[in-house]
Amino acid sequence: MKQFSHIVQNPHGLHARPAGLLAKQAKTYADTVITLTKGDKTVRAGQLLRVLSLGIQCGDAVTVTVEGAEEDTAWNDMQAFFLLNL
């Protein structure tokens, strides 16, 4: 299991378009579970509506956890995604 924390820098937070891109990318790792945590709520990153339900705004801290067969690749890709999009 690998994880990292990220402070959202996007002034619009995690809105529909980047959330959709996140869900799409998370689903590419079939043997790996990617979760997103804000506060005390954790959801799978591949579930768009649940990701949006976190209500992630600019300045919020989120934790991304990656666990499974492709965790090294998924962890690197998720970090790059968050740095570029959020």
Describe this structure in words.
By secondary structure, the chain is an alpha+beta fold. Helices cover 37% and strands 29% of the residues. It contains 3 helices and 4 strands. The protein has helices at residues 16-26, 48-53, 71-85; strands at 2-7, 32-38, 41-44, 61-68. The chain has a 4-stranded antiparallel β-sheet, covered by helices on one side. A hairpin with a 2-residue loop joins strand 2 and strand 3 (41-44). Helix 1 (16-26) packs antiparallel against helix 3. The chain is globular.
Supply the key terms.
86 residues, alpha+beta, 4-stranded antiparallel sheet, 3 helices, 37% helix, globular
Helix content: 25-40%
Number of alpha- plus pi-helical segments: 3
> Would you identify the regions where 5 or more consecutive residues have pLDDT less than 50?
none
H-E order: EHEEHEH
Structural class: alpha+beta
Distance between the ends: 22 Å
What is Rg?
Answer: 11 Å
